[in-house]
Amino acid sequence: MSRDTQLKERWEKLVDILSNQFSQGEDLDLDAIIYLIGVQELGKIHREFKKDEKLNLMHIAICRLLEPYGFYEFDFFDAEGWPHYKVKEELPSLRAGEQSVLMKEAIVNYFLERELIE
User: Which branch of life, at top level (predicted)?
Assistant: First the structure.
């Protein structure tokens, strides 16, 4: 099975699992899944977030997802428990489709580590 085919199958399975768990079956998009990862990484699951906090959650998720690729490195938790990352390497210029593939691959790897999917 090619790498692209495997990624596509794993992504579809992951979207199905998360959508059934968090949106009553309506497919979650990439941004929604990134947001969920941010909430997971913060660890404050049963809480309402303000708009700016939601953007910060997505930033946390992106940093965490791209950490294994060498772009970010965990730095510290602040007094409120929010994780902070530092840039290790600037992200290369990618076209929208390339960005999407990179993020989907990073998300699939994140959930493979957590054994939500195989």
Answer: Bacteria
pLDDT over threshold 80, residue 15: yes
pLDDT tens sequence across 30-74: 999 999 999 999 998 888 999 999 999 999 999 999 999 999 999
Alpha-helical regions (H) of 43-95: 51-66
Only one residue has tokens 């990439």, namely: 30
Go through 22-45 and write b for each residue having 16 or more CB atoms within 10 A of its CB, e for each that does not.
eeeeeebeeebbbbbbbbbbbeee
Beta strands in 47-117 (DSSP E): 72-77, 83-87
